[in-house]
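How a chain folds remains the central question behind the approach discussed here. The record that follows shows the chain in one-letter code together with its fold in token form:
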Amino acid sequence: MAGTVRLILAFHNHQPIGNFDGVFEQAYEDSYLPFLDTLEQYPEIRFALHTSGSLLEWLESAHPEYINRVRTLVTRGQVEIIGGAYYEPILANIPRRDRIGQIRMYTDHLQNLFQTDVRGMWIPERVWEQSFTGDVTAAGIKYTILDDHHFRAGGLEPEELSGYYLTEDEGRLLSVFPGSEHLRYLIPFREPHETIDFLRHVANNNENPIVVFGDDGEKFGTWPETYRHVYEDRWLKRFLTALQENSSWINVTTPSETLDHVPPRGTFYIPDASYREMTEWSLPTGRQAELSRLSHQERHDDADWENLKTFSSGGFWRNFRVKYPESNEMYTRALGISAQIEELEQTLGKEHGVLQQATRCLYRAQCNCSYWHGAFGGLYLPHLRNAVYASLIEADNLLQSIIRQDGPWVDYSLGDFNLDGRKEVLLSNHRMAAFFAPACGGQMYELDLRNCHTNLLATLNRREEAYHQTVIDHAEHLREHGEQQEEQVNSIHDLVRFKQPDLDRKIAYDNWPRKSLIDHFMQPNLALDDFHAGHGLLGRQSEVSYEGTILPGEGSVTLEMKGRAEFSGAEVEVTKSVTLSEASPNEVQIRYQLDGLPLQVPVHFGVEFNFASMPGGASDRYYYDTAGMQLGTLDMRLDLKQTSRLGLVDEWQGVDVSLESSQEADIWTFPIETISQSESGFELVHQSVAVVPHWQFAMEDSSPWIVELTLNLDTSLAQARKLAEMGSERDTSDNQVPVS
């Protein structure tokens, strides 16, 4: 009937795997709990609730009373539970079998937990491709919510967005609601009457309209300044009261009630898209900056700009894996684990207990936040990347327990593991797994420690971001005018705040990958500061393609890689060999041989290692020398002279890494720190520690120059803690009294 409107309020609550327990608790105290407290006071206001599996697991353990309260709201009909893929993966980032598996697993869990039917699902970050329709419906889902941006990009007019549509793939039908971008910016940042005015406009200009608000629950208390605004200043209560006062024409309802009583507006095939901001973030940095420039310029100069922008699709989400190779490394590692699980299921069956454990670890590793970057820290947050690798390594360990017999072992495999069209090499034993890319400078790009589920090469390069110009401009403004108090609550998309001073002066970019076994020929007497700034290299050895050969041995395996270097008019052959063994399972033996060096010419050669998962700035994370004496925390720059050993310790993680050299070397160390963006502002983030042994010499004869390095990876402290925790869990279990 004219003059009325159905309003669907859908709230999405999520915390990623790997986030600190204190962050979960703070979000609970600031958002999830007060939101529930408030909505319980308005039983006639119905809403839909999606909680990601990673957050729900934490809530079930830390706050079961919250689960009970939500179950009560479900029972009385105030809340509809929305399902989804269990650990909130981007559907475009996982194989079809895992999409269906995650959705089914979460639907089953939610239906058992809340004793309700689950008909809909939340699409993580609303990243949509039309082919997902078949996967989503195959998993038993009837509807989902996307942004109206998706529909407008496909050609629909604004007046055609006040309903829902059917879409189809190979005969499978899915109902799709367009969520209002306009409401996302009104709620909760503008006064409630502005939302009422907008709904009145829709109600008076459309036949039986439906308007959907679908967005993050963290906007209601966790985002900067929103707790004060939403709860202390009573925005949420004023908003819900306004809905109550206008209930004669605003019907606040749920997606399922709407599907049951309102027919679709028709059929529509939805183009590949996400919400508008995500499509911009996925663009290459230069094009993203250009789009921002055009948007701000044309907004004032051209009245047709908003209409024209509708037809600009922005970027494609999968290209985050191109923009950030580190994202691709996690993605392809997860693909390999998924393929192994599928292969083993063919012979052992899906009900195999260890395979089910490995599958859950894989699903956890597919949690989306670590794979992209926009207004949230995401990929730039080491603890989130570490959590992905921890789950992948745990899954790999479980699979190896099926494939291998008990006891020591060593093995190798070849394949295009990172999907770059070239072959990589995996050397592994019962303590570690090391991945090498011979075609990319012979680098070691992943080093997994099985005991503590840590990838020491979960590094991140410093690279240009479009928002770095904002950092520079804001820093100049602060120096001229000082900090100004915010007068209103802003969306995080408009927030400019520094979490540390002078961030603009710390912006730097890397000219080579911050991995390990990165070879450098350098100018003689090059200083640490110049190397740190990316200066003084003679050629780009990190870009040279090395030829790899596998040399199996008795209880060991060696990867030998040969490459060429142009040096002082001569062609030098660089041979580096890497050995893993059963007998010394915690060691990586490395041998360098340089042949063809010109005589009597100063040579400055270095090998760069990077170690992630070992943050600086804490007293229990430090360097030590050949005598075991501490040299300082891991965020320090060191310029050591003529030493044969350097160690790095992370007592909190239980990891001790030492690098020994057969020839005394000078050693540089320095932290790799990025300037990145998060929902709370711009911040300096420690990514890894660079350790660069380097040698200066001149050849007296034509014999080869040789150095042998030993990388020792001691995780005994981590293993001891793990055993202690297992013992503690057993003691607790033994003391439990069953309740009938």
In short: Residues 498 and 682 are 5 Å apart (CA to CA). The radius of gyration is 28 Å.
